[in-house]
Amino acid sequence: MEKASSPSSSPPAAGDRNNREGIIGWLNPGRYGWERVAYWLQRLTGVGLLAYFIGHIYETSNLTQGFDAWNTMLELTQTPMGHMILLLVIGMSTFHSANGIRLVFTHGGKGVGSPGRPDYPYDAASLNYRQKSGIWIALILAAVAMLYGASVLFGGE
Amino acid sequence: MKIHYMTGIGALFVVAVHIMMRLVMPYNLSLEYENVIANYHNLPYAVLLESILVLIAIHGFNGLRIILLELRQSKNWEDFVTILTIAGMMGIIGYGTRTIIVASGLSLG
């Protein structure tokens, strides 16, 4: 593909374009940048945490039904599968929080750099080392939190 | 988005305290019925739980609203999403508040 800045280039005719992938092209993660991955993870973890929150409010309401109801609920949740789910929740909440803080700064214009002319290959000027670092820090913190959670839940502390 | 950011940052602090309460003693012991009830009888902790409930409900359902509004934009859809999220917030806050009030012994009857 010719660079858009070349004065002698002309846009290809509509029939010559081979970018007719439709929805499949939209969903293809092979072309996602780091910001796109973080975007999807932020939303998926948010929805996951909302679902957990609703379940958590329901399970803790068993407290009002007395000792037996509470222990019955504990038998259901304090299992290896329950601990695995809780580990996922720990990871999701840590990533969502850390990435959310990055987004608060980004929305305020901190760490996005200066705007630039969109020349081919149209790399996002905002995806600089600060944003990439922020995303990686969120992922690493989530992994560390999950490791610590596993040591508490499965380590018998 | 200000409400979303403020509730998110506020929830971060109160949820951190809530999680730490499970770590002041062995994890399994902290989930014993008597220990959990003792938490609810502690008024500052009950207030903390209520604040978690309100902040997370607002943040979570507002986030869901943002996702749904990104999917589609029309008057009817936006009204539907707004009503759904407000109803969801009120429902979960009401149900959770009932648990806190009953468990803390401040029974309404």
Task: Describe, in plain words, how this protein is organized in 3D.
The complex is a heterodimer of chains A (157) and B (109). Chain A has 157 residues and is mainly alpha-helical. Chain A has a domain of 88 residues. Chain A is 63% helix and 0% strand. The relative contact order of chain B is 0.13. Chain B is 83% helix and 0% strand. In chain B, α1 packs across α4. Chain B is elongated and about 50 Å long. Chain B has 109 residues and is an all-alpha fold.
What is the topological layout?
The complex is a heterodimer of chains A (157) and B (109).
Chain A (H helix, E strand, L loop, with lengths): L21 H6 L6 H27 L6 H11 L2 H28 L21 H27 L2
Helix pairs in contact in A: 2-4, 4-5
Chain B lengths: L1 H20 L5 H4 L2 H9 L1 H29 L3 H29 L6
Question: What can be said about this structure in brief?
Answer:
With 157 residues, chain A is mostly helical. Helices cover 63% and strands 0% of the residues of chain A.
